[in-house]
Amino acid sequence: STLSPGPQSFSIGVWFKTSALTTEKILGFENIQGIPASAYDRQLYIGADHKLYYGICDVSVCVRTVHTLNTVNDGQWHFALVTQNTVGSNATITLNLDNGTPYVSNGAVAQVYGGWWKIGGQKANGWTQGADSFFTGSIGRVTIYNAALNASQAAQVLNSQYSPASITGTPSTTASGVINLSWPAAAGATNYLVKT
């Protein structure tokens, strides 16, 4: 809850799912903790066309966005990895959805102001296919990296993801009071964490 300078080179990883038919803001960097913010940038949201967008308001083009070709409001878990890199002469934004082909845009210097990462809403009015909104659905495992991931690091993150989908188990109790829990294996899962 401390005011932070807006990052310029960073990566964001986030799981989300929704079946909403409206614009849905997943997260962004805003200049106040409450609402409404007067400065909002570094936005990840689902547009009115149901595609996933990431955008900035850079010094030459406000708003500059990159977006998926497919819609994402199918009620399934999706993983997005965004990398904004302003180091060197090749400033880029990269958006990867579900470890597919990355979408890339050149020119990635975001607005300069102090603020906070805001998850689940709220300002996106005036952005490509955007509107002010609070997220209707589920958001899980948000990770904000304080540097832009390189290609090798991004691949490692993308290849290590597994859906946060709930697993429905079938408990049974043995005569000695031990509880056994079983469930069908989830595709791609290599381990499970069971909390009691």
In short:
With 196 residues, the chain is mainly beta. Helices cover 5% and strands 43% of the residues. The strands form four sheets. It has a six-stranded antiparallel beta sheet with strand order 1-10-3-4-5-6, with no helix packed on it.
List SSEs in N-to-C order: EEEEEEEEEEEEEHEE
The beta-strand count equals 15
| Strand coverage percent | 35-45%
Q: Output the structural class.
A: mainly beta
The general outline is globular
Largest sheet data: 6 strands, antiparallel
Count of helices? 1
Q: Which features characterize this protein?
A:
43% strand; 196 residues; mainly beta
Molecular structure report:
- There is one protein chain.
- The chain is mainly beta and 196 residues long.
- The protein contains one helix and 15 strands; from the N terminus they run βββββββββββββαββ.
- Strands 1-10-3-4-5-6 form a six-stranded antiparallel β-sheet, with no helix packed on it.
- The longest helix has 9 residues, at 151-159.
- It is globular and about 70 Å long.
- The two termini are 30 Å apart.
- The model has no long low-confidence stretch (mean pLDDT 84).
Give the arrangement of secondary structure elements.
Blueprint: E1 4-5, E2 10-17, E3 24-30, E4 40-46, E5 51-57, E6 62-71, E7 78-85, E8 92-97, E9 103-106, E10 114-119, E11 121-122, E12 133-134, E13 138-145, H1 151-159, E14 170-173, E15 179-182
Antiparallel strand pairs: 1-10, 2-7, 2-13, 3-4, 3-10, 4-5, 5-6, 7-8, 8-9, 11-12, 14-15
